[in-house]
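B., you asked whether I could sanity-check this one before it goes into the benchmark set. Here's the sequence:
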Amino acid sequence: MPLQISVIVCTHNPRVDLLARTLDGLRDQTLPTVQWELIIVDNASRIPVAADLSWHPAARIVVEAELGLTHARLRGIAEARSDLLVWVDDDNILAPDYLALAAAIGVERADLGVWGCGHFDPEWEVAPAPELTPFLEYLAVGSKPQDSTSREPFAYSALPPGAGMCVRAAVARAYADSVRNDPRRKLLGRSGVSLGGCEDFDLGQAAIRRGLGTGIFVRLRITHLMPAARVRKEYLERLVEGHAYSTTILYHLYDRPAPKPRRGLLACLHRLNYHRSLSRIERCIDNARRRGELAAHRLLDS
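And here's what the prediction gave me:
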């Protein structure tokens, strides 16, 4: 039977216990293992990734020495042998029917090039402080109210995050070509301790460019494992800063340049007045967002 899906887990210095639970979730899939392959991309981990994959007939670990999630994704695309790729983060537990449903959606919705998870159940190692609740959406948790599809660029309600994203191989290869032809795209995505992102949104746009749509489906469910470090204010500030940095670059790549943050005395006074209306955590998050935008504009100007 031909392979239906290539499951790709990109990981860098993973927590062994979380990765083990991710693999347990894959082992519990209802889709028979003869219909999908498992590729773990070890992205320059300090300690080489090791796992017992004897339960899967088509599983392997490959090493991508160039650090960065975008580089790891490109390696996964090059390794994949099926017509559908499913990205799984190393802290994701897929619902047992996830791969079967992903394959079925691919058959039912030939108009889509990219689709993904609409329901993320967080499993907190430590409960987040109430003051952080408004900003937890940055962690890819929560549920969409309903399915959503679109062929419009940057229709974020229908653009799935990288965790659990399903991508037709032709779209993935087109995305890989675009990265090779435009090295600026390698600035997107995480790299080591840097919490950049938006390489998944760039992947979604590759579907739009090919005349296909993107979609989010609430019947695709993932448990998102949340270590204690991710619900600290400092981590969320870094995450917001990285997201603002990457979003600014992403829009620049698509000729939708974001306005530069205003500077000067009047802008400073306006900002101070605005900050008086914010809580302490809101001011920290707003400052982090501004730092990310300024860093991106400095890079683009250079």
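One thing to flag: The chain has two domains: 5-250, 258-301. Otherwise nothing jumped out at me.
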